[in-house]
Amino acid sequence: MPRRPSARRFSRFHAAAFVALLGFFYLATSWDCHHHEGEDEQRAAKVPLEVHIMSKCPDARDCLQKLVLPAMQNVSDKVDFRLSFIGKTTEEDDGVQCMHGQTECLGNILELCAASVYPDPKMYLGFTMCLSRDYSRIPQKALVEDCALEHGLDFDKLNDCMSQEDGAYGMGMLRASVTRSAELNVTTSCTVRLNEKVRCIADGGKFRDCEGGSKPEDLIRDIKKLYDEAKGWSE
């Protein structure tokens, strides 16, 4: 993915387009397509891990498959995980521009809805990975249904999230996510940030700027070290 894509390369996506596309992709039937102190301490010790992607980006697929998912399978209990998206906001119509077109904006919102409805990363991250494996088909209904079934997500709940407030809810999540990435100066899909710092970037089919290594075991090692340090400070 280019590091600083120009605005003209993004396809604009706003609430009106969202409602129209939502009806086409999901609502048309013919489309194939209690609280303990110990828990507080553990939560405080969790290490922030944030991954910035575009839903229809091959580098995002490779980054999730080769680095993020294998690491999370080992240290998900030690991580405060967040999935964020890259794009551009447009002030004139409160919309969002996505590099790979309006269907990518829909894919981004769909993955944000999965995280909103199913906040356990083991569920929504697996769903996101499933979509990413066949990213060119995002957001076809058949793909979404298959990935939802595979990872225990209710398609109807995802659809309800997508259509909530006539699409404004999902669009609000996407604008907030895109704004966050921009404020953090993240422009490359996929960028992995650990403990609020860039840990690794997947760009053009290769990993770069991965101080400490780009393998899952390298990321796991760093997460465990930061977790043990934070847990020691909180005790």
UniProtKB/TrEMBL annotation:
InterPro entries: Interferon-induced_GILT (IPR004911). Keywords: Glycoprotein, Secreted, Signal. It is found in: Secreted. It holds the Pfam family GILT. One of its GO terms (molecular function) is oxidoreductase activity, acting on a sulfur group of donors, disulfide as acceptor. One of its GO terms (cellular component) is extracellular region. It comes from the Eukaryota. Belongs to the GILT family. PANTHER family: GAMMA-INTERFERON INDUCIBLE LYSOSOMAL THIOL REDUCTASE GILT, GAMMA-INTERFERON-INDUCIBLE LYSOSOMAL THIOL REDUCTASE. This is GILT-domain-containing protein.
